[in-house]
C-alpha cells in the first residue's frame, strides 16, 4: 500500500471515544441512515444477515419509499464494499482500524461508502455521518469522524483504488479484487474457474459487485412465465421457460402471485439446474425423484410441481429440522415427502430413485451479490470441509439412484475445489458416467468446453451456479 506523504497529517482522535450516557437522537431525524447504521452494527456484533435485519427494521420503524430505498442501498452497498472502504479509511486515519471503536467504524464505513460510491453530495455525506456519530458517541468521536471523512473526500473512488490497491501489472488479481471490493482469495478462485486474470475476471467481479435483479419461477401447471410477467410487471427470463426477471425494487415476497403460491422467488440459474435434471432422457421407470439437500425448498418445489405433472413423486431429505419444516411449508399440496435426515445416511433404499438432485451445502461464492456481507465473512478454510461433505453427499446420491438413473450435482459456487474437483474425484471412484451437461441447458450461450456447466452473473445474469449431470452405469 502506498502511503502519501505530501497530504495533510492524519487526524488524531480520542482514545477511545466516549460513549454517551444519555439517549441517542431519535431515528426520525435521518431514518434511512440510522437504519443502515443499525444494520451494519447487527452484522458486526451479532454476525447477523443484513437481508434479514434490514427489512425488519424498515417494517418496525415504518420506513418506506425513498427512505427505504436509500437505507437498503447504503446498508448493502457499505457491507459489500467493506474491504475497499477499510483500505481507504486506514489510509485516512491516524491509527489502525482495529483500535477504532466499532460504532465509529460502522459510521465511517457508511460515510466513506457515500463519498466513494454514491451521488450523495460530499458535504451531506460527511455532515450526516458526523451527526450520527455525535448523537451516539459525543463530540470527540464526531470530530474524529469528521477529520477522517474529510480526508476521504480528497479523491474519488478510482483515485483511492490507485493508491491503496496492489500494482495492476505485478498483481492483476489483487488489483481487480480491491477495485471491485472482493477479498483476494475469492478473486483468485474466480480467476481459476474462468482460466483468466484479465478481462473475463474484471467482468465477473464487476457484475458480482452490482445489485442483482430479482428472479421469479412460475409454478409449472399453474401459470406461465408470460402470465406471471404480465402480473408482476417483469420480463420473461431469457433461458428458463418458467423464469421472470424483475427490475423493480421492493419485497418480492409481497407480490400477489408469490403470496398465492403461483410463483416463488428463485434465481434463474437455480431453475436451470433443477430443470436440467428433469431433461435427461431415461430408459425404464421415471417415477421416483429425490432431492437430497432440500432446505429451504426452492428447487424441491419446482421439481415437485414438474413431478406432479409427469405422474412422479419427490422425496426431499434435509438435515436441519427447521429447514425441513420450510420445505414442508413450501411444498403445500405437491407430491413431496419430506425426511429429516443426513443425506449421507438417509436410510432410504439404495438404487431406488430414477433422478436425484444433490444441491450441496457450499461456500455460496456464486451468490455473493445477494448476500452483502458474505464475501467478507467466508474464509478460505471453509472450502476443504465443505468439499469433503460434498463428495460424501454425491457418493451417497450415486448409491441411492438406480442403475441407468441420473444425478445432478449442483453448487452455488465456481470454486474449483467444490465443482470439478468434487465431480472428477467421485466419478473416478464410483465409475459414474459424466454426461455433457451443456445439452440440458438449451439456448444458454457461453457454456465453455463442458462437460459440466458453470453459469456466471456477467455472462448469464444468474448466480454463478455449477451443475454436473452423472449417470449411474446400468
Ligand atoms: C444449498 S442448500 C439447498 C438449497 C435448496 N435445494 C433450495 O433450492 O432451496 C443445502 C442444504 O443442505 C442442507 N444440508 C447440510 N448438510 C446436509 C446433509 N448432510 N444432509 C442433508 N442435507 C444437508 C443444509 O441444511 C441446506 O439446507
From TrEMBL:
It comes from the Bacteria. Transmembrane segments: none annotated. May act as RNA methyltransferase. Pfam families: Methyltr_RsmB-F (PF01189), NusB (PF01029). The lineage of its organism: Bacteria, Bacillati, Actinomycetota, Actinomycetes, Pseudonocardiales. Belongs to the class I-like SAM-binding methyltransferase superfamily. RsmB/NOP family. This is rRNA small subunit methyltransferase B. Residues 190-473 form the SAM-dependent MTase RsmB/NOP-type domain. The active site is at residue 412. S-adenosyl-L-methionine binds at residues 293-299, 318, 342, 359. It comes from Saccharothrix syringae (Nocardiopsis syringae). Residues 1-31 are annotated as: Disordered.
Amino acid at each position: 500500500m502506498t502511503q502519501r506523504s505530501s497530504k495533510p497529517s492524519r487526524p488524531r482522535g480520542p482514545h477511545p471515544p466516549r460513549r454517551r450516557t444519555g439517549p441517542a437522537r431519535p431515528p426520525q431525524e435521518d431514518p434511512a441512515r440510522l437504519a443502515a447504521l443499525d444494520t451494519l452494527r447487527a452484522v458486526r456484533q451479532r454476525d447477523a444477515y443484513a437481508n434479514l435485519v434490514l427489512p425488519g427494521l424498515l417494517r418496525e420503524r415504518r420506513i418506506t419509499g425513498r427512505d427505504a430505498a436509500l437505507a437498503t442501498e447504503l446498508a448493502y452497498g457499505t457491507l459489500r464494499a467493506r474491504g475497499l472502504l477499510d483500505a481507504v479509511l486506514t489510509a485516512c486515519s491516524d491509527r489502525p482500524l482495529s483500535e477504532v471503536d466499532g460504532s465509529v467504524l460502522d459510521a465511517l464505513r457508511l460515510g466513506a461508502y457515500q463519498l466513494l460510491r454514491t451521488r450523495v453530495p460530499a458535504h451531506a455525506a460527511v455532515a450526516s455521518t458526523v451527526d450520527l456519530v455525535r448523537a451516539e458517541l459525543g463530540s470527540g468521536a464526531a470530530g474524529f469522524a469528521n477529520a477522517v471523512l474529510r480526508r476521504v473526500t480528497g479523491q474519488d473512488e478510482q483515485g483511492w483504488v490507485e493508491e491503496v490497491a496492489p500494482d495492476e501489472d505485478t498483481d492483476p488479481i489483487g488489483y481487480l479484487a480491491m477495485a471491485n471490493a472482493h477479498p483476494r482469495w475469492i478473486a483468485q478462485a474466480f480467476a481459476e474457474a474462468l482460466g483468466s486474470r484479465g478481462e473475463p475476471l474484471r467482468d465477473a467481479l464487476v457484475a458480482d459487485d452490482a445489485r442483482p435483479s430479482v428472479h421469479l419461477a412460475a409454478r409449472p401447471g399453474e401459470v406461465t412465465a408470460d402470465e406471471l410477467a404480465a402480473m408482476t410487471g417483469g420480463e420473461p427470463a431469457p433461458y428458463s421457460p418458467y423464469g421472470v426477471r424483475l427490475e423493480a425494487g421492493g419485497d418480492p415476497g409481497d407480490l400477489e402471485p408469490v403470496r398465492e403460491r403461483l410463483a416463488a422467488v428463485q434465481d434463474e440459474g437455480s431453475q436451470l439446474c433443477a430443470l436440467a435434471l428433469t431433461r435427461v432422457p431415461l430408459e425404464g421407470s421415471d417415477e421416483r425423484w429425490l432431492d437430497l439437500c432440500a432446505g429451504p425448498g426452492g428447487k424441491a418445489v419446482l421439481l415437485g410441481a414438474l413431478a406432479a405433472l409427469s405422474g412422479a413423486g419427490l422425496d426431499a431429505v434435509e438435515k436441519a429440522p427447521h429447514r425441513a419444516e420450510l420445505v414442508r411449508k413450501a411444498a403445500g399440496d405437491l407430491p413431496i415427502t419430506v425426511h429429516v435426515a443426513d443425506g449421507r445416511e438417509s436410510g432410504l433404499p439404495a438404487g431406488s430413485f430414477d433422478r436425484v438432485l444433490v444441491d450441496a451445502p457450499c461456500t455460496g461464492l456464486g451468490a455473493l451479490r445477494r448476500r452483502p456481507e458474505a464475501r467478507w465473512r467466508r474464509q478460505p478454510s471453509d472450502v476443504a470441509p465443505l468439499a469433503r461433505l460434498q463428495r460424501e453427499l454425491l457418493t451417497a446420491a450415486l448409491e441411492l439412484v438406480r442403475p441407468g438413473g441420473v444425478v445432478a450435482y449442483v453448487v452455488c459456487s465456481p470454486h474449483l475445489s467444490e465443482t470439478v474437483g468434487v465431480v472428477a474425484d467421485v466419478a473416478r471412484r464410483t465409475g459414474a458416467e459424466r454426461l455433457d451437461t451443456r445439452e440440458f441447458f438449451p439456448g444458454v450461450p457461453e457454456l465453455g468446453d463442458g462437460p459440466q456447466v458453470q453459469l456466471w452473473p456477467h455472462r448469464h445474469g444468474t448466480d454463478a451456479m455449477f451443475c454436473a449431470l452423472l449417470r449411474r452405469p446400468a
